[in-house]
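Weekly modeling sync, notes
Attendees: S.R. (lead), two postdocs, one rotation student

Agenda item 3: backlog of single-chain predictions. S.R. asked that every request posted to the team notebook include the full sequence so nobody has to chase files. The rotation student volunteered to paste the first one in as an example of the format we agreed on. Action items at the bottom.

Example entry:
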Amino acid sequence: MKNSFSVKAIIRKEQPRKDGTDRCPIYFQIIYRGGKTKTPSGKLIHPSQWDDKKRCPKDSLLKNVLMKEESRIYKLLLEMENNDEEFTKEYILKKIKGEEKETINPDFYFHLDEILKNKFAIENLSKGTKDHYALLIKRLKSFKPKLTLNEINSRFVDDFVYYLKVDLDSGNSGTNNVIKCLNTVLKKFVNEKKIDENPCINYKKFPEESSIIFLNPDELKRLINADLKLGNLTKGLEHTRNLFLFSCYTGLRDSDIKTLKKKDINESKKIVKTQIKTKDVVKIPFNKYWFEILKKNEFDKKKDEDLVLKYTCNAAINRHLKIIAKVSKIKKRLHFHAGRHTFGSLLALQGIPIHLIAEYMGHKDIKSTQIYMNTDEETSNNVMKKVKF
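Predicted structure, as returned to the notebook:
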């Protein structure tokens, strides 16, 4: 059962001042489940200026002052109730006077676990994002198994970055990702007043080299025409090629392809899919290339809730892609996500407006799409040969 309570100003007529003015002190009477107590307001009033019927001062200014304090006390009691704090006379009075000090568990990892538990539950984060935070915890505990809130300062962040870069030989991108997660956590710590300031605010990201891998038109053509008849590997290689090409033709991530259902393709044969990573809806117009792949997988026979493509594990697919790249005489280190990059890059090469590419790829920020405006050197040279000035 919740605590119920009330706060009301009262005049203590039984305690008149012995200074000849006959003024009496005003107290706040607090009634709560299990008891009641009083605390002085610091104000005095003559009994004739007190409205016994309305139980408040006749003077409106003093009345407003008392009402504000009543409201403040009530809010404090409400906080105590919401936090399931124990209602005792001594604690209530200390709370009102501001004499109580909340004891905060000094263990950094205790609060980190609490924040991430709530973050994961409320924000419905993707598995990839959760993995980033799991890595943060792993790196922090390997750096400092026991860590207190008082130790979180600029020196700690500098030492942690040094540990990541030097001791663990972490790359720039990996280091930046870990510190990015730490920064998010520490911002929350500041908001909840667990620490005074966020030392990550001064962190300067290490420069990251672009590792975008995509196929140019010639490479894509070689991959499409590659002879993959390699004994018992043939069926698996051909299926992997179809999955990869489906990504090249739609720009969908592996997580969205493996969860794509027939109902995600509407009557006009447009893909309308809620992305697993971002939770945003992406709309991809029909083209014959990706639809032909669905037809090969008996799309017409499937029901609305059926998955349209059979997707094996990423490890097996990436192993197959290495073989496919070798057969296709593609020297790039091919992985499945290169299909999405190929989609964006080929649309850019063919002059599709950047805002449409961003829309098809589900990018909220057009900056994410701008990476596809640059192509590899070979393709750039070929394009420039066709330009007429």
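Discussion: group reviewed the output briefly. The mean pLDDT is 87.
Action items: rotation student to repeat for the remaining queue; S.R. to check formatting next week.
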